[in-house]
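Batch 3, record 17
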Amino acid sequence: MNYDLNTEQKMLKDSARKFFSKEADSIFIREMAKDEKGYSKAIWKKMAKLDWMGILIPEEYEGSEMGLLDMVVLLNEMGYACFTGPFVPTAVLGVTTLLEGADDKQKKSILPKIALGKKIVTLAWTEESGQYTSKGVNAKAEVKDDSYVISGTKLYVPDANNADIIICAARTDSSSENSEDGISLFIVDAQNDGLNVEVLKTIQGDKLCEVSLNNVKVPKENLVGEEGKGWDILKKVLLKAAVAKSAEMIGGGRKVLEMTVDYAKQRNQFGQPIGSFQAIQHHCADMLTYLETSEYMTYQAAWLISEGLSYEKEASMAKAWVSDSYHKLVALGHQVIGGVGFMEEFDIQLYLRQSKTAELAFGDADFHRELVAQELGL
Amino acid sequence: MNYDLNTEQKMLKDSARKFFSKEADSIFIREMAKDEKGYSKAIWKKMAKLDWMGILIPEEYEGSEMGLLDMVVLLNEMGYACFTGPFVPTAVLGVTTLLEGADDKQKKSILPKIALGKKIVTLAWTEESGQYTSKGVNAKAEVKDDSYVISGTKLYVPDANNADIIICAARTDSSSENSEDGISLFIVDAQNDGLNVEVLKTIQGDKLCEVSLNNVKVPKENLVGEEGKGWDILKKVLLKAAVAKSAEMIGGGRKVLEMTVDYAKQRNQFGQPIGSFQAIQHHCADMLTYLETSEYMTYQAAWLISEGLSYEKEASMAKAWVSDSYHKLVALGHQVIGGVGFMEEFDIQLYLRQSKTAELAFGDADFHRELVAQELGL
Amino acid sequence: MDFVFTKEEEKVISEVREFIKKESTPELLKETHELERIYGGKLGREFIKKFAANGWLCPNWPEEYGGLNMSEMLTYMIKDEMTYSGIPHSYVAAHYAGATIMKYASDEIKEEFLLPISKGEIEFALGYSEPSAGSDLLGLELRAEDKGDYYLVNGQKTFNTHAHVADYHWLAARTKFDGPKHKGLSMFIVDLDSPGITIRPMISIADSRTNEVYYDNVKVPKKRLVGEENMGFLYLMKALDYERMFPFGHYRKLFEHLLEYVKETIVDGEPIAKNPLIRQKVAQLATELEAAKLLYYSLSYMLDKGKIPNYQASMEKTFVCDLSQKLAQTGMEILGQAGQLTSDSKWAAISGEFEYYYRWVIVETIYGGTNEIQKNIMAQRGLGLPRA
Amino acid sequence: MDFVFTKEEEKVISEVREFIKKESTPELLKETHELERIYGGKLGREFIKKFAANGWLCPNWPEEYGGLNMSEMLTYMIKDEMTYSGIPHSYVAAHYAGATIMKYASDEIKEEFLLPISKGEIEFALGYSEPSAGSDLLGLELRAEDKGDYYLVNGQKTFNTHAHVADYHWLAARTKFDGPKHKGLSMFIVDLDSPGITIRPMISIADSRTNEVYYDNVKVPKKRLVGEENMGFLYLMKALDYERMFPFGHYRKLFEHLLEYVKETIVDGEPIAKNPLIRQKVAQLATELEAAKLLYYSLSYMLDKGKIPNYQASMEKTFVCDLSQKLAQTGMEILGQAGQLTSDSKWAAISGEFEYYYRWVIVETIYGGTNEIQKNIMAQRGLGLPRA
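Prediction for the assembled complex:
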């Protein structure tokens, strides 16, 4: 076992830390939450120049082919900065879906553009129920001539408002008793007729969208993978995205712990720093424990994925554990910081919001515990 | 609203406190856990003289007809002393079952004897699954001539080893799809042929028994209530017994809190009483909160029952809340008392054991929360 | 024992309920929500004057001061109903300062303030916290110097929630600058439009407003000193004992909305009400709300018997505030993705109430004395454990 | 990064597994269980001598002292396997005292003790706690007075778990009676059959035995002083840093038994494995065991890199000990009524293992430093928070 990042990963981590602290301070984060698009094209271009979009993309498609562990290193820093925007939808969700399911032609046409920062992609999976289940997919896609025609409403689609391409899950066959059969994935041009995107307002101000599809025509060659077999792809994407989301959470958690401990050292009450009171010390110790266990769980899952080993159980364990832990960590941080932390201008609140949306994204703790139970043979 | 006991109840409480501290110190409690019978006949007689067996029994059957709230006052003190034995099986389980279901003749023949301390009664409900559910009742009773013939194995029957009469739940009809139909209750003489009792060893050393019935013949007139309608009786008995058990737990909880606070005041480490450390203070404050909320919940449920008002939701809430709270309270007490409390000779361990058996008796917290959900219309 | 309200109590409370139903408008409820349920908004003031005309704002006060001489039990019941129904329910003058004025202030102050308070005509803003005085109130440094006819006040307050809508400041100030800290505080009633007072907004993560209040050579007439000079800390502490109650009708209502949601919602073709996990969560919340209710009314019962709750009030406060956070989190778990949407989102669940409260409840375990301080009180006053 | 063991490590551990499988008997496991897994029983001694002959008792020790010069990672893996398989795994000499002897003791002591220790031939009993020295070790009062050739020792120890089966006492005593408390302790190795030593049993709620040890004018030869006089507290603290590990293979095994039970059990006609509540509980335990594993091996990784875990060891200890209590409680919830039955009851679930562990785990968050002390360490050493 080896708990350390390698030299390249450490460099990536350092440069990401510097990048975000320079480009995206907490004032910027607040602006983006209110901003219609929620991201800055200028920063996007800089990120592309750093080759971050292509971390998961094989070299043949212009990526750097580094793997999910490296992506996790970067996302950790993104979470530390509370940075949002279309990066994860594009470089994780979009790329992973295409890598798992797309044919060479599709990959060639999209992945290099992603790697160069020229295309923003997202995945439209969940619908009204908000559930990452096969039963939750009810949009319909019917064959008509050389096209599929898709209708339905996808919800909670991250950054669809910014996307050039929306990979959309829809049902091509409803006849099977097993709801996992009959789901297909389509590469949909966001400019397509009949497609409408509306941003939903969330507690974090990240851009989750409603994507309405009203007889949207998609050429047959835009089918990703086999018709009706989309669920096999989605299952893998879910777990990888869950690990990516865990990485953002451990980054946020690290920042919250730092803020909290700094405050506890500086704030005096009753003639001494509040950090000298046992109750505060124990809150901080609990936060530290939540954080370090979360880090280990996340890195382990990411490493397993990067190595091509079996990762299902560990990925779900990570998302379940990190979701719960981050929630508790932030609550303790607020409790230590007290009234000041309740104010909009203190940064911990940004992380309170982040923790809630991250908890819900790609399956919450209960959801992933159920997957763990399945992996245990229950 | 009135949170106070009335004068008679206070007197009952005081005299019970005195009685148990005189008759049943913690050495005695330890002896009884190892004793084959688990109770002292001499003390039983004294308790009978105090009219405690008849608290729930109407005056016409020689009881004092005081009601469940008064019983709870007494049981609170019994729990405080960690006192076990056939009192609850007889004076709560047995009496309540008979009051809910028996006919006048049956009552006349048994209740006065209970009131006078001359009969020990218990209720044999659960079986191998240990579940207080209708599906859990699978012993069979078949009509043969003027008798029912009962066969099956009842488990976790409290004090069956001491009982003169075992009221036994068995299935007289298995044809209905609804498992609640077809259950009947029988008054069974413990000396009956084919009936065998074996004491199971528990964590507390209270006397839960296996009662095997092998073609036990019971006269038809020993049927309690209508044939096949026993479940209606059991449902009520369950909730009343659950409240009685909660009363024992709040008594135990009070004692544990006292022991813990005493210890925290006397024990010095780092040059000061450990009770001056904030971590210890907060443990104790949490214990106090668990205790007082548990007391209120228990008394409210008991009062509702005593007044003949609707009590189902509050009774299940009480058992769920008290079971969880008592468990946590004892755990905190152990944490404060530390190594000394891990030793057999320190009394807190008696309450650790009591809390576990009480948690399981008459439905645990999960079980009663499910009942609460039903009461909420879910 | 007795765990129901009397017929008389039920009668009064049904009148209150009736009145609120008739008189509260959607606009009032909106204003109240936007003001985080404090008193002082335009519609709130109008409503409360009518409400208070029935004596319901300070029902436990003597009749001469505009009360009804009613029991604390009824007072608590009315407060519960006020919180439940979404009308303004956070009052400084009526529910914090009033009792102290009645007990310690000069006749002149009593005459000037008590009736207008109980009639809902004027409101105070709490002036305790300062940048260096949070949990440790004795750290407060705002100075009031005796200048003969008046006190000259200089310094800064923070987290003074009602200041932007209230008429007066219920001000704790240091009047003695040496000696033991707890023997140098005094209480004042200060016109908030006095020259030299500046009020600056502080915005919370629940979008609510609280304030910094700056005093720059503010002259406060001597007659506005409450009780004796340098006895302020005693008054503060006593007031906390008498006044500390934490009604939670709004959380009861929030729970009811959650329960309705659970009954009505079908996910992936299954009613979520059938899901054992959700059943457990909802039942647990209901159980804790029941326990909170019993704690809440135990305080009024004690008061009616002439006993002063102290650790009991800390217990109730802590229990309810913890519960509010559990409720918000559990609700969010049950609502799933829809829970994160704000009230103005088309797909928001339960009108975004949980999204809002999820942010709001952060402060519950902090203000009015943190959980940590309350637990110290329970341990030391309730159980006699020694101070460090 | 890398989250699997190397092939070499797997090879060693499979040899260990093989050996244990072959050599451990039901009688040994029974004795071990009855001795609460400490070393010192008759069968245990026989077994461990064979086991230690492979160098597996102190694999990280240098070869000259009977070790294999192996990595800490392997040492931790072997310890995990030992706990998992139910053989004796609580050693004072090999796992607590040994490293301190190696680092600080005289050559004479090293020569006399280190090889016998690593060969499993002798065992020590920990002699730290006293009636007035629990969490506060500096409160210890047992006196060792310098009498020229020997120390004269008087006083009382308590909770000295191995004393009734061990050969030597690893004794902390006060040798300086004035000045700062932490500069007056010394460590000794004392023959437990020395005249003047009395050992009295203390029985725990898990039926295990620990001891009070009384010293009445016991003469301890000077050569049995470990390291320098009055440096004992330093040695103790250093030893804690190096030696604090908390293997939990026995809890992993307990969980596996619970998982099997859940898979096999049908209640009221339904497999309990289908119950969503039980699924959540089991999955949560599995998840926490995974986190515990990662914490556990992080310590050995640090050690192999030459870093000394301090707050990390406290974290692992606290996490595992909390987990043991959750496991016991959750197991009991799942087993229902059958869980309360003791191992000799016909209807006991999982041979009464949970009933037993339910009692045992009480001590986990207490001994070896309470959770409260560990959290102080994490806050102060791990996060730099100031002492009060």
